[in-house]
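Duplicate of #3305? Posting structure anyway:
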């Protein structure tokens, strides 16, 4: 079967990695699992053996056709569609969700897929995802690390993440030019707990990280807050005047956001 690099097809061939991915999803008996980009079905086979049903979202027409032949309809539903257009909420409702989700995410649309999953959090409870190592490092980064940024805070506001293991290029066919990593995301949004409004808070995070080399003070002034507003808010939040966004925890951001009260109309 030909490889199509234009849609990021690098097929997992490491059997041990397949088992580890399935194990990381937990007990799948009686559950429906959505698989993003099943490809040749390496992970699909294991998921179908463990879950009540698997819904495989595959854009490639030839691969989708092969999957439909290889698996019985009662175990697998193949949806030939761009995952960014796939309706997770309707799928969860159809199968009595919430859903478990697994996927080998195409490198070129990883961030849009992660944001889609965040928006669809109510339809999901756990996802185990294979991504480029640098993306996994950013998603799971903690305050104070060089990888900590907008993606870290945004993803972690929708639930805890844990990097599980890394995979070399040789684990795939054909081998990609980068290393990959697998991480688990448990969906448990923190907006209500931290007392922030989802849309305005995420817009505030983008403002705070607008230029990572600059202090939080400079970035917030560029976003329209006055120096006095920022000084008072930082003091009230118990943050150093010269703090940078990369040093703030989710709780710090929530506290600062609650004091400054960013306008929801600024949200992207």
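Output from current build:
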């Amino acid at each position: 079967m030909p490889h199509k690099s234009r849609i990021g097809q690098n097929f997992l061939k490491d059997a041990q990695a397949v088992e580890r991915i399935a194990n990381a999803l937990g007990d799948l008996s009686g559950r429906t699992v959505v698989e993003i980009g099943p490809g040749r079905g390496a992970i699909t086979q294991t998921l179908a053996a463990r879950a009540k049903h698997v819904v495989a979202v595959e854009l490639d027409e030839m691969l989708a056709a092969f999957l439909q032949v290889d698996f019985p309809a009662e175990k697998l539903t193949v949806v030939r569609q761009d995952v960014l257009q796939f309706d997770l909420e309707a799928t969860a409702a159809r199968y009595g969700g919430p859903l478990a989700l697994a996927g080998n995410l195409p490198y070129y649309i990883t961030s849009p897929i992660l944001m889609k999953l965040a928006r669809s959090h109510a339809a999901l409870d756990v996802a185990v995802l294979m991504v480029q190592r640098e993306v996994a490092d950013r998603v799971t980064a903690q305050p104070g690390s060089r990888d900590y940024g907008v993606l870290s805070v945004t993803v972690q506001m929708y639930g805890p993440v844990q990097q599980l293991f890394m995979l070399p290029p040789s684990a795939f066919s054909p081998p990609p030019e980068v290393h990959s990593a697998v991480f688990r995301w448990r969906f448990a949004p923190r907006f209500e707990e931290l007392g922030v409004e989802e849309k305005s808070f995420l817009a505030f995070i983008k403002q705070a990280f607008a230029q990572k080399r600059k202090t939080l003070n400079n970035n917030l002034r560029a976003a329209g807050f006055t120096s006095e507003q920022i000084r008072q808010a930082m003091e009230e939040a118990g943050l150093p005047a010269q703090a940078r966004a990369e040093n703030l925890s989710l709780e710090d951001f929530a506290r600062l956001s609650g004091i400054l009260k960013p306008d929801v109309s600024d949200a992207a």
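Confirmed duplicate; merging threads. The first strand starts at residue 11 and ends at 12. The chain has twelve helices and nine strands.
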